[in-house]
Design brief:
Structural class: alpha/beta
Number of strands: 31
Strand order of the largest sheet: 5-4-17-16-18
Distance between the termini: 54 Å
Shape: globular
Strand content: 15-25%
């Protein structure tokens, strides 16, 4: 701020939203993004505010501003420690990471992959997953990371939608001491897709593959490859990765991020929001299948030149002490944790500072879902010792990271997400777009930012309907939010029908479609209820085709778990004779939820069959 004669944060923020080009150009210079050809213009909104372009005519490859830069500046510095439940920990330096990514980039080129091809990465949090991401970026391919806990059906949908040509997998992994085989579901998922090659990493020796012209062993394709590679010079607007997030229509949304916009934005997120520096050691158990893992564990971290501990395993195995053992052993300075994990630790009764030295931790970021006040205080007192700020963040996959953040040195209130990040022109408004103070309203963004999703993959209409249809010329984020008279912001959940389980957004429509596909089910509705551990839990109401079915709720729980993944397994399943619907056929999910939770039902005059609610007993 001194460089630009800015006296305080308030002035910085006002200047940033008044002149977006000035601000994001200054961020680019401060982060030190390396351009093959410098952009001629920062932004261009000539196609409309919904379709912005950033860093016009610029040429770069995002990897040159991260791993390559620091392989030269600090070659022997550790980039990552990799820790898992089943293997001896390993580490990799910046120069080693650069060389390994180059070897794989050469191997991928030899296999025929080229700029614009989509590479799917369905792997646990191991070194080869990060190397595959970097190698894909180097050759100009578009990577899509898919959470390794997803089922075959969920994987198939994403492979089909992204039109992926290559799939990176591992030979299984270990969770809570149990071997997890994925071979069968992987081979099932690639059927009826355009996958031409599977590349298998030897990790746990659980699955055995027959290697062929379709299935390759990772170690074999990189053996003997040169450790240098000239990264492809990409246009600023060329796609870098596709990341899927749930929506209200059932089909996952393919969010698109670009080389130029994300290069600048990732550095912004790491440097300014969580105050990451080259001297820091980050531990944030966030999968690369989610935006948190992409921005802070990967691109942002590498652009700063910091180090991170990457953990492949359950953080509460063999006990909740595991997480504190890692914090202590690796001298972690920035500890990122989700609200769900915080609730789990709090419920365990552990008092970590009685046994573990956590004094090196200087910042505690948290994101993924709204945090409750009890968990906020637990983080602040039990881990932060009443001194370390809880850097609560709010954003999304479509945002590219966070848009609201607690910043170092600011006054806090429990659960606040701080204030808008510089460069984000946010507001809380009512249905008539009037600004609100101390009242719950809708979160909107008035101006674009560099990491705004470039539409939704293959579905421009859905993009407009989802984010721009409410008010036309401002981004409607779909969150209920409160801005108080002190300027602090608080999140109050989703407006749409999305259930947030442990920070993972799951579409009610997708769940209902799966449930209703069961041969014994004629109709279904999915809702969320509060849960002490996961934040929200899934409850499914079903109408059975036959009235005398035995153990049908348990069957549905297993069915959903198999079709989507364990994270989508309903906590409760209730059988009712029919769904409460309006005369136009709309299922009134809010009434099911209110009745189940013992809340006031409100107006039910539009309900065609109000007596059906008598079948729903309160918890």
């Amino acid at each position: 701020m001194q460089k630009h004669n800015i006296k305080d944060f308030v002035q910085l923020y006002q200047n940033s939203i008044k002149d977006l080009d000035w601000y994001w150009n200054a961020v680019n210079d401060d982060i030190g993004i390396i351009w093959d050809k410098k952009y001629s213009k920062v932004s261009d909104f000539s196609r409309g505010i919904q379709w912005p372009e950033w860093f016009i005519d610029g040429k770069l490859n995002i990897t040159n501003s991260g791993v390559k830069k620091f392989s030269i500046k600090t070659p022997n510095k550790i980039a990552y420690w990799f820790v898992s439940e089943s293997k001896t920990p390993t580490k990799i330096t910046y120069i080693e990471l650069e060389k390994e990514a180059n070897r794989l980039a050469n191997a991928m080129t030899e296999l025929g992959l080229k700029q614009g091809d989509v590479v799917a990465i369905y792997m646990p949090m191991i070194s080869q997953a990060i190397i595959a991401i970097l190698a894909s970026a180097k050759i100009g391919a578009v990577q899509t990371t898919i959470f390794s806990g997803y089922s075959a059906d969920a994987l198939k949908i994403r492979l089909q939608d992204s039109n992926a040509k290559v799939l990176f997998v591992s030979d299984g992994f270990v969770r809570k001491g149990k071997n997890i085989s994925q071979k069968e579901q992987i081979l099932d998922a690639v059927k009826e897709t355009n996958i031409e090659k599977i590349i298998v990493t030897e990790h746990s020796n659980i699955d055995r593959y027959d290697y062929s012209d379709f299935c390759f062993e990772y170690s074999q394709i990189v053996a003997g490859q040169p450790d240098s590679f000239q990264a492809k010079s990409m246009d600023s607007e060329d796609p870098l990765f596709i990341l899927y997030t749930s929506g209200t229509t059932g089909k996952p949304k393919g969010v698109i991020h670009t080389h130029g916009g994300y290069a600048v934005y990732a550095g912004h997120q790491a440097s300014y929001l969580i105050d990451l520096t080259p001297d820091d050691i980050l531990f944030w158990p966030a999968d690369i299948g989610w935006i948190t893992g992409q921005v802070w564990n990967l691109y942002g971290l590498l652009e700063v030149g910091a180090s991170a501990v990457i953990y492949d395993g359950a953080i509460d195995h063999p006990s909740v002490e595991r997480i504190f053992e890692l914090l202590t052993e690796y001298n972690v300075t920035i500890f990122g944790i989700s609200p769900t994990a915080t609730r789990m630790l709090r419920k365990s009764g552990i008092v970590p500072r009685q046994k573990y030295d956590l004094d090196k931790i200087r910042a505690i970021p948290t994101t993924g879902e709204p945090i409750d006040e009890q968990s906020w205080w637990w983080l602040y007192e039990k881990i932060g010792n009443g001194k370390i700020p809880i850097m609560n963040l709010a954003g999304g996959t479509e945002i590219g990271g966070a848009m609201l953040s607690v910043f170092p040195g600011m006054s806090l209130k429990p659960t606040t997400v701080g204030m808008p990040c510089p460069g984000f022109d946010l507001d809380v408004v009512d249905e008539k777009r009037n600004s609100l103070i101390n009242q719950k309203g809708f979160l909107i963004i008035r101006k674009p930012w560099p990491a705004i999703t470039r539409g939704l993959l293959g579905d421009e209409d859905r993009y407009i309907q989802t984010y721009w249809n409410q008010y036309g010329d401002v981004w409607f984020h779909g969150d209920y939010t409160v801005k108080d008279s002190d300027g602090l912001w608080f999140m109050h959940g989703r407006v749409d029908d999305v259930i947030n389980v442990s920070g993972h957004r799951l579409s009610t429509v997708e769940i209902e479609q799966i449930v209703s596909s069961h041969p014994k089910i004629s109709d279904s509705a999915a809702i969320s209820i509060p849960d002490q551990i996961t934040g929200e839990a899934i409850v499914v109401f079903i109408v059975a085709k036959e009235s005398k079915e035995v153990n049908l709720p348990e069957q549905i729980q297993s069915f959903v778990s198999d079709k989507i993944g364990k994270l989508a397994k309903p906590k409760l399943v209730y059988i009712i004779s029919e769904m409460p619907k309006t005369r136009t056929g709309k299922v009134m999910r809010r009434l099911l939820r209110a009745k189940l939770l013992g809340q006031h039902l409100g107006d039910i005059s539009g309900l065609e069959n109000p007596l059906i609610l008598d079948e729903v007993r309160s918890l």
